[in-house]
Specification:
By secondary structure, this protein is α/β, with parallel strands linked by helices. The protein has one domain (4-96). It is built from four helices and seven strands; from the N terminus they run H-E-E-E-E-H-E-E-H-E-H. The strands form two sheets. Strands 1-2-3-5-7 form a five-stranded mixed sheet. Strands 4-6 form a two-stranded parallel sheet. Strand 1 (17-18) and strand 2 form a beta hairpin. The longest helix has 10 residues, at 49-58. The protein is globular, with a radius of gyration of 13 Å.
Length: 101
């Protein structure tokens, strides 16, 4: 699974309510919001509009990616904004879900 690493990092955070299912989407509840997070596979090393469409069809609302080997096209970010799918690096996701908020 491409999102297992991210799932395990989020599951370790006691202030997050993380569902046990982590197959395509990681379901996280925090601060009154429900996030359905997708992390790209190695074949999706450039996040394109196609990836955003795929995640939207799955019911996801966040694509979180590692900047060490992955990047997002500007078009994908803009398309995501129009279709309620946020495309962000893992670091931004971790900041969003920080217990200090």
């Amino acid at each position: 699974m491409s999102n297992y690493w991210l799932y395990s990092q989020l599951k370790d955070q006691s202030h997050l309510e993380v569902d046990n299912n982590y197959h395509d989407l990681i379901s996280v509840r925090y601060n009154g919001k429900h996030y359905k997070i997708y992390s790209p596979s190695s074949a999706e090393y450039i996040i394109t509009i196609d990836v955003v469409q795929k995640v939207g069809a799955l019911g996801g609302n966040i694509i979180s990616f590692p900047t060490s080997w992955c990047q997002s096209s500007r078009e994908a970010i803009l398309y995501g904004k129009k279709h309620d799918v946020t495309v962000i690096p893992h670091g931004v996701l971790f900041s969003m879900l920080d217990a200090k908020e």
